[in-house]
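Aim 2 progress update. The chain analyzed this quarter is reproduced below.
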Amino acid sequence: MAANEVPLGYWCTLVGQQYLASLRGRLGSLGIDRWYFTLVRISEMEGPITQQRLADELHLDKATMVRAIDHLSACGYVARRPCPHDRRKHHIELLPKALPAIKQVRQAFTELNDQAFKGIPAAERKLLLAHLKEMLKRLGPAGHGEEGGKQKKTGR
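Predicted structure tokens:
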């Protein structure tokens, strides 16, 4: 990295913070805090949804996923139901209160995405998102080093 180059993480953090602040401003009445996409993703998944499956889908660690489900459950948007075949597992289920909230969240995502991407052609939007997904793959899970969690030896 050049001496005057700002790290990618800085820009991603700023964009993420601004995006989340805008979401909170639009959706504050829902009380979801920051778990908007988690709620939407639950609504899109088919079949039994376990915390582990959801964590894998969202690239989140187990502890973070537990906090998200605890929060969404406390707000009345989801419930944990015992898995009939494995008492150690629970299935995540949407509650009726979630459906109108999900509609509001999707609308807010659409509006904010349009605002953020204003003036950027659709093809470039798709390319940017594809690049970000590739970067995520190359960086691996948070805290796990390079290439999908394989730590690079540093000689220390």
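The longest strand covers residues 78-82. The beta strands are 78-82, 90-94. These observations will guide the mutagenesis experiments scheduled for the next reporting period.
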